[in-house]
Amino acid sequence: MILEVNGLSFAYKSRDVLRNIRFNVERGEVLAILGPNGVGKTTLLKCINAILRPCAGSVLVDSESVFSLGSTEIAHRIGYVAQRAEASRLIAFDAILMGRRPHIDWKVSDRDLAIVDGAIKLLDLGLPVEIHYYKGYPLILPLERDRKEDESCPAPSAKP
Q1: What is the pTM of this model?
Q2: 49-61 pLDDT, tens digit each
């Protein structure tokens, strides 16, 4: 079992947000957490990666309690990109690359870029990209498209 959540409960002051949450995720499975705003989805994720400490229950990753692991070890085992209320948005490539942060030493390697590119292809997330280098730093650029295709297809920001 890769992730095991047992009897997880969490409250903000006197307001219960999570109560006795239990589930397991096996290797190869995908878990989706769905629900309306304010029901505790983000709180659950923050408890799973030990950003928040639940008032009851346990979270095991590969049979080890996340609460006994250091933040670097947790980051190696659990990918997490926080929600932000910023005006600027990351492109998919940047957001996926942020998930690689715990595995990157001093600078992004070709292997890191290949992993991100593979994730983009696997998830079918938009335009293919080319990776160019400037002074040793990667520049991620959209692939040039055929001009005929561009003329027949309006820009994503164009209004009909």
Answers
A1: 0.57
A2: 888 899 999 999 9
